[in-house]
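Narrative summary of target 7.
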Amino acid sequence: MSRLLWEAAVAVALLGAVVGSYWFAFQAGQKAGRSEIQAKWNEDTARRETSRLEALARFNAEMDRQRRISVEVENALTEKLDAADARGRDLARRLRLALSEGVCPAPAGGSTTGPTDGAGPESDDPAAIGAALADHLAACEQDAERLTSLQRWVGEIRRDPTAP
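Modeled conformation, tokenized:
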């Protein structure tokens, strides 16, 4: 019987060695597989993060460009509005003076206070002067409304960083 126990013990030991070897090989393979998957995962994560940062940089550059353009347009229109307002105020002053005196004075020395905008010659007719003043003030009002809407639009762009 001892021989039978001895053979059973050897069989169990061999079976244990086979199962142990198989288990060790399985664990080693699984660990290697996990490492390979983790390496690929890390590589993919790094690639996605790089893409995200590049897209963010492009977005920020575009937003800065749009803001610069908006500021330039706003400044140019503000300058034009200020110049038109100055010309309009000067015209209104001269027209009031002309209406109160009953004549339309010529500028001193042939110079004007504002740049020429292609207006025709001055009229001595008070009704024509009044109509010209009304037309000019309406044009100024329209310019002011356009500038206000542009300023509102520029303000919205500055507040909304996702706007194109």
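DSSP finds two helices and no strands in the chain.
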